[in-house]
Design brief:
Number of strands of chain B: 0
Number of helices of chain A: 10
Largest sheet of chain A: 9 strands, antiparallel
Strand content of chain A: 15-25%
Structural class of chain B: mainly alpha
Strand content of chain B: under 5%
Distance between the termini of chain A: 48 Å
Oligomer: heterodimer
Distance between the termini of chain B: 81 Å
Radius of gyration of chain B: 23 Å
Shape of chain B: rod-shaped
Order of helices and strands of chain B: HHHHHHHH
Largest sheet of chain B: none
Strand order of the largest sheet of chain A: 1-2-3-4-9-8-5-7-6
Helix content of chain A: 40-55%
Number of helices of chain B: 8
Order of helices and strands of chain A: HHHHEHEEEEHEHEHHEEH
């Protein structure tokens, strides 16, 4: 049975009517797709186990009864690599098995998220939107990287303020290995007018870490609140503007946003820069945002929708606080 | 022995010079910070005459308050561009008094619905609110710079060097007492 949406927080006010009109009609279909995807995944998973089991058995039999074959492979130039590639290839059947899950998750996002975004009037959702602009990635709030992947774009206006939000993953190659250096949300908010200076807010990394990352032409800004001073390191080309922007209320909002993105209390890892006419935020998160938490969870469980509304609310509160809707 | 004395004297001289440089830099920073405060205070002073001109049409019973504000504004304008600790102390005291009276004025505006909805007054109040927020931000910067200077000037042995070069502690820019006190909700109702 399709559940009713119960408004649990003030920011969800009015969503019930929107849910009844636009989301409820598609939920039954989405749930049917989820069940079918889960069934197909289980079927493919069984096949993958059998295929891999047979492959491992064959490998063991070759080692026992034809070890010279293994020796011959190892003696070739790429022998070691071939053996390793063989083990990696064992993962291929499981990747094939997971394909229905990936397809369902994409389908869910493309069905449900655009409809939720419409609740806010002027926001649109797109799964892909090309590469991130370099001025955002090189703004100083992201680590250096060699590869980027972005998805789940929400763009549009909130109270006449242009904003864009998307999930971002940055990787860096070091020798033969590749590491994930950032995973989370990228948020860009456009102000109606430019800032006088540049103000950069980063995570405090201790005296030595901060010294290594100290910014040229920028002065350190001491935050009066010891709670924030312990967590963040702020530099700016304009001391007064930095204090005008980084009020206690704003800092609290930033930390609330970081917690909403991670779903855990105490998680306050967030970095921001005020530059030109933009506020850019990097909100790390281990979770895949804007996605159903698990294929095992029914589409009739509306927790994911509540979570999404909460995340959007935190961003809107930040905009309200900065009074971006004022000229 | 002689070499040891020369080395010790050298170390003391280097230390004294580095403290001297630090004191001068910190004092310059305080003055730079205060100039930022000064800019915002000037904006506030410039806003006051327009507001009072509009208010006079409606607030016929608040003449005394408006006259006090005018007098304090005139006094505050004279203390603009202060550089030394004494000048800044005097300027800050005047600004505190002016803030206090402006606060009382804003509360009284609420009792005059016609004035409250007057376009010029609404715009002036918005501008004043923005200026007050900038004053708060510049105050925080000034107080931070003053604290760093005062720590050096008041703590031995750096205080010796500071007194030799006649650098004194600077006053903090404090909020008016009315702003510090918790609002009494019963009095407002």
């Amino acid at each position: 049975m399709i559940p009713n949406f119960i408004e649990k927080a003030p920011y969800e006010k009015g969503f019930t009517a929107h849910y009844d009109a636009h989301i409820r009609p598609v939920l039954e279909e989405v749930e049917a797709q989820r069940v079918a995807a889960q069934k197909e995944y289980k079927r493919r998973n069984k096949i993958a186990f059998i295929v891999d089991g047979l492959a491992i058995l064959a490998f063991i039999l070759v080692i026992l009864f034809a070890p010279e074959f293994i020796r011959m492979i190892l003696e070739t130039d790429d022998g070691g690599g071939l053996i390793i590639a063989g083990f990696i290839a064992l993962g291929a059947p499981f990747a094939w098995a997971s394909a229905p899950l990936v397809k369902f998750k994409k389908g869910y996002k493309n069905r449900i998220l655009p409809v939720i975004c419409k609740f806010y009037g002027q926001l649109d959702y797109k799964e892909k939107n090309g590469s991130m602009p370099p001025e955002v990635l090189k703004s100083g709030i992201y680590p250096s990287f060699t590869k980027q992947k972005s998805e789940d774009y929400i763009t549009g206006k909130y109270k006449d303020t242009q904003l864009s939000i998307n999930e971002l993953k940055l990787k860096k190659k070091s020798g033969k290995k590749t590491y994930t250096v950032f995973k989370g949300l990228s948020i860009v908010i456009q102000f109606p007018k430019s800032f006088n200076g540049v103000t950069l807010l980063r995570r405090d990394k201790g005296k030595i870490g901060n010294w290594f990352e100290s910014s040229k032409n920028m002065e350190r800004v001491e935050l009066e609140d010891p709670k924030f001073e312990a967590k963040f390191e702020v530099h700016s080309t304009d001391q007064i503007e930095a204090r005008y922007l980084l009020t206690t209320a704003f800092m609290e909002r930033l930390m609330d946003l970081a917690q909403a993105a991670n779903g855990t209390e105490g998680h306050t890892n967030i970095q921001a820069i005020f530059k030109g006419s933009s506020l850019m935020l990097a909100v790390p998160s281990k979770k895949n945002l804007f996605e159903p938490e698990s294929i095992l969870k029914s589409a009739f469980d509306l927790d994911d929708i509540h979570t999404f509304l909460k995340q959007m609310n935190e961003i809107f509160l930040l905009i309200d606080l900065l009074k971006l809707d004022r000229n | 022995m002689e070499i040891a004395i020369i080395v010790i004297l050298g170390v003391i001289l280097i230390w004294a010079y580095s403290v001297y440089v630090g004191v001068i830099r910190k004092r310059n920073k305080v003055q730079e910070a205060y100039s930022g405060v000064d800019v915002q205070l000037k904006k506030r002073h410039d806003l006051i005459p327009n507001m009072l001109t509009v208010a006079k049409k409606f607030m016929k019973h608040e003449k005394e308050l408006m006259n006090e504000i005018t007098e304090l504004r005139t006094k505050a304008v004279k203390t603009e561009h202060a550089k030394d600790a004494k000048g800044i102390k005097k300027a800050l005291q005047t600004e505190q008094d002016l803030s206090s009276k402006l606060g009382a004025f804003m509360v009284n505006v609420e009792n005059y619905p016609q004035l409250k909805s007057d376009t010029t007054m609404v715009n002036a109040q918005k501008s004043l609110q923005d200026v007050e927020e900038h004053i708060a931000a510049s105050r925080r910067f000034y107080n931070s710079a003053a604290r760093q200077l005062n720590d050096t000037v008041q703590i031995f042995p750096m205080s010796l060097i500071a007194s030799m070069v006649k650098v004194e502690a600077y006053p903090y820019f404090e909020t008016a007492d009315e702003e510090k006190a918790n609002p009494d909700a019963a009095a407002l109702l």
